[in-house]
Automatic annotation (TrEMBL):
GO molecular function, one term: RNA methyltransferase activity
GO biological process: methylation
Species annotation: Spinacia oleracea (Spinach)
PANTHER family per record: METHYLTRANSFERASE-RELATED (PTHR22809), TRNA N(3)-METHYLCYTIDINE METHYLTRANSFERASE (PTHR22809:SF14)
EC number in record: 2.1.1.-
Record's function text: S-adenosyl-L-methionine-dependent methyltransferase.
Name of the protein described by the UniProt record: tRNA N(3)-methylcytidine methyltransferase
Family, similarity comment: Belongs to the methyltransferase superfamily. METL family.
Pfam families linked to this entry: Methyltransf_23
Top enzyme category: transferase
Keyword list, A-Z: Methyltransferase, Transferase
InterPro entries in alphabetical order: METTL2/6/8-like, SAM-dependent_MTases_sf
Length: 338
């Protein structure tokens, strides 16, 4: 009897441990998309603090910043070659569940893949998904390949396709979506002459890009995570256009980046400011901070449809220093029209 009671007690204890672990994991996932505080209240605090007034004052840079290019990011990844600088972004699968529910053999383009922290969770969960990952830094691509090779994921290197590309200055490779296929996708309707078809304004269905043999025919998803903020603002429209051009009709772009009045922004000293909401770090890399209207105008301006767009406001606690940090990110989902 005592043994049975002890076994039952031990089983209940193990169940409680498992339940606590599951709750802890759920909380960790939720923290990146919670509302720990209201962004409007933060805005009021910042804009009434005279010591922070330089962040919102007008700014006219004399010259465009020369850094923030591939060389600066290559140096960055060289210094953080162990791959421990970034954590695997598993929370993205909760934020963007469309990646989990996607069809088999779907194609994802990860723009600015860094060391693979976004690529890893996608390939780990979706066994038949192919990820095409680009970065302007060859050093970053090497780190990504090393991290994926070390991961315990079946056939991972067969589904991971890295390539070097600065999407803010050059087009994506033609093998993603060739010019012919891009033009076909942009042309929604074909009106044949009534004399040929016997009817007026007959609509002809265009061939599917899945049947294309000259290129991949575009991708189903684009992930743009903490990448757009790293390029000069004057290049952002061209960069987003490139993402739009390689998406299949109905395809989705997932956006996550630094939001206005994020703790990181408020830490920059006045001499690090290179433009409006635009800063340069000591290592030459750039950081821009988005508001909702600016992000909305950027994506809708090139043809996307807005599905979701909001601030993620999270209180991050540094227990060692006993400090609470207010993090702000912009979360968005955009779709290419059918």
């Amino acid at each position: 009897m005592a043994i049975r009671i002890l076994g039952s007690t031990l089983s209940a204890f193990v169940d409680r441990i498992k339940s606590a672990s599951e709750m802890s994991k759920a909380a960790a996932a939720d923290e990146y998309h919670s509302k720990d505080f209201e962004w409007e209240m933060l805005r009021q605090q910042v804009e009434t603090d005279l010591s922070l007034s330089y962040h919102i004052s007008p700014f006219q840079p004399s010259l465009s910043p020369s850094s923030g290019d591939s060389q600066a990011w290559s140096h960055f990844h060289s210094r953080h070659s162990t791959g421990k600088f970034f954590k695997e972004r598993r929370y993205l699968l909760k934020e963007f569940p469309e990646l989990l529910s996607s069809e088999e053999n779907s194609k994802v383009l990860e723009v600015g893949c860094g060391n693979g922290s976004t690529v890893l969770p996608i390939l780990r969960v979706k066994e038949r998904t192919h990820v095409y990952a680009c970065d302007c830094s060859v050093e970053a691509l090497e780190r990504a390949k090393e991290n994926l090779e070390c991961a315990d994921i079946e056939h991972v290197m067969e589904r991971f396709h890295p390539f070097c590309c600065d999407f803010s200055t050059t087009e994506f490779p033609k093998w993603l979506a060739c010019d012919t296929c891009r033009n076909k996708r942009l042309q929604k309707l074909l009106h044949h002459n009534s004399e040929v078809n016997g009817t007026e304004g007959t609509l002809i269905n265009l061939p599917s890009m899945k049947d294309s043999s000259c290129c991949l025919g575009g991708v189903d998803f684009v992930t743009l995570v903490f990448t757009l903020s790293a390029i000069p603002p004057e290049r952002m429209v061209a960069a987003v256009k490139e993402c739009f051009s390689v998406l299949k009709p109905g395809g989705m772009l997932f956006f996550r980046d630094y939001g206005l009045y994020d703790m990181t922004m408020l830490r920059f000293e006045p001499d690090k400011r290179v433009g409006f909401r635009h800063y340069m770090r000591a290592d030459g890399t750039l950081s821009y901070f988005f508001d909702l209207d600016g992000g909305r105008n950027l994506f809708l301006g090139v043809g996307f449809i807005e599905l979701e767009l909001e601030y993620c406001c999270v209180k991050s606690v540094n227990r060692q220093k006993r400090k609470t940090m207010k993090r702000v990110w912009v979360h968005g989902k955009f779709q290419k029209p059918l």
